[in-house]
Amino acid sequence: MKILTVVGARPQFIKASVVSRALSRVADEVIVHTGQHYDKNMSDVFFEELNIPKPAYNLGVGSGSHGKQTGEMLMKIEEVIFTEKPDIMLVYGDTNSTLAGALAASKLHLPVAHVEAGLRSYNMRMPEEQNRVLTDHISTWLFCPTQTAVDNLKKENITAGVDKTGDVMLDSVLHFLALARSNPKKTAIYGQLGIAPKQYRLATLHRAETTDGGLDAIVRIFDAFEQLPQPVVIPIHPRTRPLAEEAIKKRGYRNIQLIDPVGYLEMLLLTSGASQVLTDSGGLQKEAWFMEVPCVTLRSETEWVETLEGGWNVLAKLETDDIYRKATQTVPDPSAREKMPFGDGKASEHIASILSNRKE
Ligand code: UD1
Ligand code: UDP
User: Fold this and answer.
1) Coil, helix or strand for 284?
2) How far apart are CA 261 and CA 11, in angstroms?
3) 175-337, CATH topology level
């Protein structure tokens, strides 16, 4: 079985790290990197640290408008399919790289396997929602992280090829957090940043809905961070950096520590050590939940509704007062964690086994 995997953005490298390891026992995998993320700390660092097989192709597509970026990926992925003649196309999540991989394959009648299928925000203005809905509807295998995802697909009449495998991000946290904690070069991050475990909060911001609000939205968010009783460390996504720097210059914030994006091992340490996470990221909301760190999600909806149970994750509008109130007044309920909705930590193995036992 030959699998062609398309990745392109940071969270996809992290997911691929665990899935590729499982697939290596049952398939030949050829990895295509679209080049959607290309800075060293948005791409290379993950391949170097997480033992991900080196991509056989880097399409070098880079940044651009949705149409340009997705269109260029589509053309180049099609060429790779012609050259490699794989049996399966594997894609992750909901980025433009996901849609391009799925669409290029589907048009050539190459069956698509979608990891993290069935997620919905029911906000069709999000580029990610468009990508995931379209990808799910042209996939042959739909690997769902949760029962909610299975139910979402059912509402769209998708039941064939649907499996609840659990969340591959849980596999990756279980595997890599232990490695990070036992590596003094990585645990040095606390000292380097001058922070002590549980004495700081961790934030990330990169969603289009956040940055589309321009400087005003970032100032409203940072005004809330400024009032929090602990410093807020922000590994800033390159998309948000110019606005964040402008906001800091304008308002002279003293409680905000802007740092470059970090590798995954350091990120797991920063997350597990934080007293709270504030984020618009999909993946980070769940990682906070896995590590029992309360989270404030800076969005009006979330795909990961299970994390809302018992107040472990709360939604906040992009308004200073709402963020401050949610960040300081929410007390999560420990009894709400008895259910484990994200699987058994072996989602990658389940995926590999379903694909290797597939019937043509
Ligand atoms: C993309 C995904 C989003 C995912 C995120 C993970 C889409 C539509 N969005 O958003 O779902 O949550 O990745 O991080 O696919 N940039 C750099 N260097 C890089 C990468 C990006 O400077 O290595 C800057 C560029 O200015 C670029 C901007 O960030 O225009 C946005 O990058 P892009 O990949 O288009 O979207 P993300 O916001 O990263
Ligand atoms: N992450 C990282 N370094 C950082 C910020 C995030 O390794 O500086 C990891 C984070 O732990 C999570 C993933 O990147 O595993 C989330 O990616 P992102 O927030 O970019 O995308 P999303 O999950 O929202 O699609």
Assistant:
1) helix
2) 13
3) Rossmann fold (3.40.50)
Q: What are the catalytic residues?
A: 206
Please provide the CATH number assigned to the domain covering 2-167+343-357: 3.40.50.2000
- pLDDT, averaged in runs of 10, over the chain (360 residues): 98 98 97 98 98 96 98 98 98 99 98 98 97 98 98 98 98 98 98 98 97 97 98 98 98 98 98 98 98 98 97 98 97 92 98 91
Question: What is the number of alpha carbons within 13 Å of residue 129 lying toward its C-beta?
Answer: 14
- What global pTM score does this model have? 0.98
Q: Which residue has the tokens 């760190």?
A: 293
User: Nearest ligand, CA of residue 180?
Assistant: 2
Distance CA(199)–CA(202), nearest Å, equals: 10
Q: Where are the domains of the chain?
A: 2-167+343-357, 175-337
CA of 282, closest atom in ligand 1 = 12
344: its two tokens: 């058994």
